[in-house]
Specification:
alpha+beta, 5-stranded antiparallel beta sheet
Length: 334
């Protein structure tokens, strides 16, 4: 399971359940308890990284990936610069590190403690600056399967008990991204990572990569030995969690979202759990008590409906180990 998390570079973890439902849709054999055990054993952890959102990464990637995504954290911090007048950044980072390594702190607790130290500064700006400067992780029980806990933070080095090793070079991240998501364009990776100016890394790697053109003429890159299924390869129905990287990552989401359904998988910053049929967005789903409710965006043939039902039964068995009712109907947007 740790290898799967590493292969995908990370699992989107803006909410606590998507890191479990995402591999359930991708693996023939998966048990959420296995991933939860890795998190409890500190072999994986939750940290803000790609697209400046929380992801579950391997311990090694938590330590090595932060410098790669730091430019996005710098942009976030820049929006709070006015509230940090007269605050020495190095001193702020040192004080914040001492606080969170003494005991994990919530953002509210950081605001209070740092605001007391710098009463003339904006407490929220102080806490955001600390979060953007230090490599912080969310400590358990937050993120464990079927457990709950507040978002409390400490440094990744303190949580994992070891210092950061060499930072991942952009070229190394490009190769890992393509291994998981290729063929892909430069803009695709930039959207996935929440970064800009990655073309230079692709150009340095060009002699080692294959290139293609999509129907719109956009250049796509891929690893020479990567699997590239043919157009007749079946794409079984899949139940994806909210904020899944498959739908959020590409710059051109039209690869998976038909024009008629554009925008139907989210409202503002709120993304919904989605159903894919034949590899394209085809509906939404939710769990309402003991019932899986499936809302399709159009009529499905009897055969397709049976396939969706069978996949729903499989997903429920994997994730919950018990029979659930399945109902086709409207999904309540929350």
């Amino acid at each position: 399971m740790r290898d799967v998390v590493g292969h995908l570079v990370g699992l989107q973890a803006q909410n606590t359940k998507p890191p479990y439902y995402a591999p359930a849709a991708r693996l023939e054999e998966f048990a959420p308890e296995r991933l939860s055990a890795l998190m409890a054993g500190r072999e994986v952890a939750r940290t803000v990284s790609l697209r400046s959102t929380a992801h579950t990464h391997t311990a090694d990637d938590c330590l090595a990936l932060r410098p790669f995504v730091q430019p996005a954290r710098d942009r976030e911090q820049a929006g709070f610069r006015a509230g940090l007048a007269g605050v020495d950044p190095g001193r702020l980072a040192a004080v914040a590190r001492d606080l969170v390594e003494a005991e994990p702190r919530t953002m509210a607790e950081l605001r209070a403690a740092l605001g007391a130290r710098w009463p003339g500064a904006d407490p929220r700006a102080l806490a955001v600056a600390a979060r953007c400067t230090l490599p912080l992780v969310q400590v358990t029980p937050r993120g464990l399967w079927e457990e709950s806990g507040r978002v409390a933070l400490t440094t990744v080095e303190h949580w994992l008990g070891r210092p950061a090793g060499p930072a991942l070079a952009p070229e190394a991240v490009v190769l890992r991204y393509l291994a998981a998501f290729g063929p892909a364009s430069v803009r695709d990776m930039q959207a996935w990572a929440g970064l800009t100016r990655l073309r230079a890394a692709f150009e340095r790697l060009r002699p080692r990569l294959l290139t293609f053109r999509d129907p719109a003429g956009v250049e796509l890159f891929d690893l020479p030995d990567a699997p590239r299924p043919g157009p007749e390869t079946p794409a079984p129905p899949r139940f994806l969690p909210e904020y899944d990287d498959l739908l959020l990552g590409p710059a051109d989401r039209g690869r998976f979202v038909p024009p008629a359904h554009r925008g139907r998988n989210r409202q503002g910053n709120q993304a919904y759990r989605t159903l894919l049929v034949d590899g394209f967005l085809a509906g939404l789903w939710t769990l309402d008590g003991g019932t899986l409710v499936i809302e399709t965006f159009g009529e499905l043939s009897r055969a397709r409906r049976e396939e969706v039902t069978a996949e729903g039964e499989r997903m429920l068995t994997v994730m919950h180990g018990a029979a659930h009712d399945i109902r086709f109907g409207g999904v309540v947007r929350r």
